Amino acid sequence: MTDAIRTPAFEAKPKVSPLYDPKVRSLVFQAVLCLVIAFLLYQAYANAVENLRRAKIASGLGFWDNIAGFPISQSLIYYSEASSSYGRAFWVGLLNTLLVASIGIVLATILGFIVGIARLSRNFLVAKIAYWYVEIVRNLPLLLQLLFWYNAVIKALPEVRDSISFPGGIYLNNRGFIFPTPNFGEAFWLVTVTFWAGVLGALFYRAYARKKQEATGIQSPVGLTAFGLIVGLPLAVFLLAGMPLSFQFPQAGRFNITGGVSLLPEFLALLFGLVIYTAAFIAEAVRAGILAVSKGQTEAAYALGLTPKNTLNLVVIPQAMRVIIPPLTSHYLNLTKNSSLAVFVGYPDLVNIFTGTVLNQTGQAIEVVAITMLVYLTISLTTSLIMNWYNARKALVER
Questions:
Q1: How far is CA 240 from CA 19, 138, 191, 225, in A?
Q2: Rounded CA gap, 380 and 332, in Å?
Q3: How far is the C-alpha of 94 from the C-alpha of 295, rounded, in Å?
Q4: What is the C-alpha separation between 211 and 208, in angstroms, rounded?
């Protein structure tokens, strides 16, 4: 037995061909894929350069500083048809896009939450109105709705001589919505600084009140305090500074209205269409988020003596936000991208000005389209980043 054959402690592993190694194969496949993509991109670039050379079209951004030579109906910054460049026209279009997208997101969120909550109302009439609003608006093409608001609603308003007048020098006609121009005095900066200081103070107080409630269960008057800091304090500074604000009221003539600030009918049609269309989708996300909260939460809140309003604001909505935020991000992105349909109602957004007029005048299709795509990609990624940060703050943290 002492001469028994002993098995060696370590045996040499058989050599395996690299072709049968999963890691090696994956690296090879990824390298081949990268080479194929690089080859296709090079071929596309070379083909574009050759086509531009044959068409005798210059490439590059040399057109950026050339005089645009065309008017723009709405501009948030200085723009002159005779002296402003194509680059200036780009910034005008970008700011117009950001204006309608930012206002649209705020209004669509408010309307969407109202309709989403109304769909779950115990009032039969309110619930049915919200239901049919969502079903009708969601199932009609957005472009058709934009054309409806522009041609059937706004363009059907009275002419200038028959403008609908409101108190305070406000007029509404088929040329837009006209209201007084505010003129800010030298001391108005004090009111502005006070307002933003009040906003920061309200945010800090809200955080303090939340920690206090979690520690003691005592609620603080957050809404009243925030109103005092954001509205009351700037109003007091405004009065003490001698009311450094005046208004230039529009003057109605027989054929035109002079003075004041005018919101173009194209802007109103685009804004109405985007808000009403997107709010229908947001309403469904809100309804789904509320239904995702267990009924036991509501029953427990009622058992503690909370009113239906406090139950909705303090118990249901905070928990529902964890379900609402992810689809809400997609709806915000869709609203911003859908604003490119402004060209169909004549609103001077980025696509209309830059990818439309500038491209037609310069012929720089590759550069213009690439810049426009990069702008929308940057806006979308920035929106997603902000919403993902907010979603992380609202996410349920396990102990």
A1: 82, 50, 10, 21
A2: 9
A3: 46
A4: 5
Nearest to 101 by CA among 265, 256, 261, 275: 275
Confidence of residue 13 (pLDDT cuts 50, 70, 90): low
Helices 265-291 and 124-138 cross at an angle (nearest 10°) of: 120
Give the pLDDT confidence of 239-274 residue by residue, as tens digits: 998 888 888 888 887 778 888 888 899 999 999 999
Measured distance CA(398)–CA(293) in Å, rounded: 17
Rounded to 10°, the helix 86-118/365-394 angle is: 40
Greatest extent of the chain over all pairs of C-alpha atoms, in Å = 124
CATH of 92-177+267-394, one of 1.10.3720.10, 3.40.50.720, 3.30.70.100, 1.10.3300.10: 1.10.3720.10
Chain Cα centroid distance, residue 383 = 7
Mean pLDDT of the region 68-87:
90
Identify the pLDDT of residue 278: 96
Amino acid at 156: A
Q: For residue 393, give the nearest of 155, 158, 210 by alpha carbon.
A: 210
Q: Which residue is listed with tokens 């909505």? A: 317
Residues 179, 279: Cα–Cα separation, whole Å: 26
Judged against a pLDDT cut of 80, whether residue 152 lies above it is answered with yes
What pTM did the predictor assign? Answer: 0.82
Q: Which distant-in-sequence residues (6+ apart) come within 8 Å of 103 by Cβ?
A: 271
pLDDT score for 12: 55
Return d(Cα 42, Cα 65) in angstroms, integer: 29
Coil, helix or strand at residue 264 = coil
Domain positions in the chain: 2-51, 92-177+267-394, 181-248
The residues with which 176 forms a beta bridge, in sequence order, are 173
Tokens of 174: 């088929």
For residues 286 and 317, give the distance between their C-alpha atoms in angstroms, rounded to a whole number: 9
In the numeric block, the tokens 């090879």 are attached to 28
pLDDT class for 8, splitting at 50, 70, 90?
Answer: low
Write the pLDDT tens digit of every residue in 92-125.
999 999 999 999 999 999 999 999 999 988 899 9
Terminal-to-terminal C-alpha distance of the chain: 62
Report phi then psi at 117, rounded to 5: -70, -35
Could you give the CA distance from residue 390 to residue 382 in angstroms, rounded to a whole number?
12
